[in-house]
Amino acid sequence: MSNNADIGLPNPPNDSISSLSFSNKADYLAVGSWDNSVRVYEVSPQGQSKGIAVYAHHAPVLSVCWDQENSRIFSGSVDNTGHMFDVVTGQTTQVAQHAGPVKIVKWVSMPHAGVLVTGSWDKTIKYWDLRAPSPIATVKLPERCYALDARYPLMVAATAERRILTFDLAQSPILYENTASPQRLQTRVVTCCPDKIGFAVGGIEGRVSFCYLEENNKRNEYSFRCHRQNSSSKKNDQSLIYSINDINFHPVHGTFSTCGSDGTVHFWDRDARMRLKSFNRASGPIVCSAFNRTGSIFAYAVSYDWHKGFSGMTSKQPNKIMVHAVKDEDHIFEAENIALSKTPSNLQVYGGIKELEVYGFYVETCDDLAYKSHEMAQFVERPWKNWGDGAQLRISFKLEPLEHGNLIQSS
Question: How many Cβ atoms are within 10 Å of 225's Cβ, its own excluded?
Answer without folding.
Answer: 18
